[in-house]
Amino acid sequence: MVKRDDRQLEFSLAEAPKLRVIQGLGQKKQEPLASRDAVARVLIEAGADLLLRRISSERAEVIEQEVDEILRLFDLVDDNRLLFPVLQRKLDALEQLMRETRETRRRVTRR
Length: 111
What we know:
This protein is mostly helical. The protein has helices at about 35-50, 55-80, 85-110.
């Protein structure tokens, strides 16, 4: 039979650690979609929303398709700057889709 040791390990600190509270507004600031990293974060956000069942699989799939096309366009714009207006239109459309998605998500979580 194994003997149980119920003692708890304790550390004594000379003084409590000082923590600083950073005041925020309670909302994450939405960054403009101006880089590959920002677009990739949209995909991560959509994946988390899908796992938490805050968005439908259809909406998540549309977001994924848009992100894939935009990332491809980023690569093409590196070689051909004339495609930049196409990329900008797609980025604007994705921002609008994400605004709608976030608004829908807020309505669902308030219920």
